[in-house]
Hints:
Elements: H1 3-13, H2 19-29, E1 38-39, H3 42-48, E2 51-56, H4 66-74, H5 79-84, E3 86-89, H6 93-105, E4 109-114, H7 119-127, E5 131-135, H8 142-153, E6 156-157, H9 164-183, E7 190-194, H10 199-211, E8 216-222, H11 227-234, H12 258-264, E9 269-274, H13 276-290, H14 300-306, E10 316-321, H15 328-336
Parallel strand pairs: 2-10, 3-4, 3-6, 4-5, 7-8, 7-10, 8-9
Antiparallel strand pairs: 1-2
Helix pairs in contact: 1-12, 2-9, 4-6, 4-9, 6-7, 9-10, 10-12, 13-14, 13-15
Amino acid sequence: MPESHVHAAADGAVPGFGIDAIHEAARRLTGQVVRTPLLNSPMLDDLVGARVLVKAECLQLTGSFKVRGALNALLTLDEDARRAGIVAYSAGNHGQGVAAAARLAGCPAVIVMPSTAPRIKVDNCRWWGAETVLYDPRTEDREEVARKIIEERGMTLIPPFDDPRVMAGQGTVGLELADQARELGLTPDTVLVNCSGGGLAAGVITALGHALPGLANHIVEPAGFDKMARSLATGRVCANPRPPGGLMDAVSGPVAGARPLAVLRHYDVTGLTATDEEALAAMATAHRLLKIVLEPGAAASLAALLSGKVDVRDKVVALVASGGNVDPAVFRRALAD
Length: 337
């Protein structure tokens, strides 16, 4: 796809979102978030037969990329809205990002979380100073729980992915990745991005689409929870067939985002999946070869790469290791396997 076509299509897909919004977010977040490293291991390269560049968002503030989008959205609010506070619903990483953003901005925050969320994510939200409200994902709707809090307290919702400000903040991952690859004298041929609602994927693929036209774009979802791939195939928002579950909770949200879907449809995106077992193996490989800790959902892209889901031999492949907030028991299981 010619670069000029990519620019026009992507920027016009969602009002308030595009490459200019991503650059604005980058300026807004300067000095507020970590410019995470782009890691490489010759042993990993040898294992897959390609040059592999891993954007280590597991080393981001709160241990996940999510703080980028949350803080960018929060910093666009006026003073009255900040004073009233913000609310988010999240399986954990978005909640931690919103909690951290609220603390940085000095405003109250309430995080609505499923009762099945990993304990480390609940505890971390509380450490940042946020109030947590737990709900049963089998019988309660998280948006309805959040809506009641908003009505009662006059707070502002910071959505986890289906919001142009959040998507733009997540897109700063892609800007950094492109710059860091350029500093290494490398031009990625392929990118793999973990995907749940699609905010990260839409942001990263948009940013990289401007810097690296012709890039092969892949999203990676848990096997059986590939709602965005089905959404791309049908052209309409799809939901997962059952409530979130399994080890890859961070990328097993219930529904694809309409705005991320609108953006991703303007790119040639291939959907891949990874199993829990493949994610555990990827976690162990990341620890052994890159010396980083990944949660299962954050290892999905590496899992797809290691299990041969995409042909990258003799190419330069980039992927986003999106978070490292894993329960100790799960991490021990990954290393034991």
